[in-house]
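Dear colleague,

Thank you for sharing your sequence with our group. We've completed the structure prediction you requested, and as agreed, I am returning the results in plain text so they can be pasted directly into your records. Please verify that the sequence below matches your submission; if there's any discrepancy, let me know and we will rerun it promptly.
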Amino acid sequence: TVILTGGEVRVPKWSMTGDFTLDTIAQIKAPKSILGCSGISVQRGLTTIVAQEMRVNALMLEQSEQRIIVVDSSKLGKDSSFRYGDVDQIDMLITDRDASGEQLALLRRAGVGEVIEVGTP
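Please find the predicted structure tokens below.
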């Protein structure tokens, strides 16, 4: 089942933000959440370039039983403007096969659960 939170739709990413969105998420205990990020590093954790997404993403991490982060390899080891979570909150990290082995090892040691690399071998 897909549940949309409503709220302000932010183009071009089509993310939903704002108080209406936050109020909706606060009422839900999600079995899974699948989130992206603008950067992920051991030092700063999960970050985004969009200030309005920061609170929504942080609340989704809190309100979810399983937290899945999907990120392309170019964002590993990078930081962005707004921090919304710690790497040890991640149950599963999905990235592409170009991911740096060193970055993945750092993230695993910092508490990331399962790491899945996808794409053509």
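Summary note from our side: Residues 51-62 form the longest helix (12 residues).

Kind regards,
the structure core
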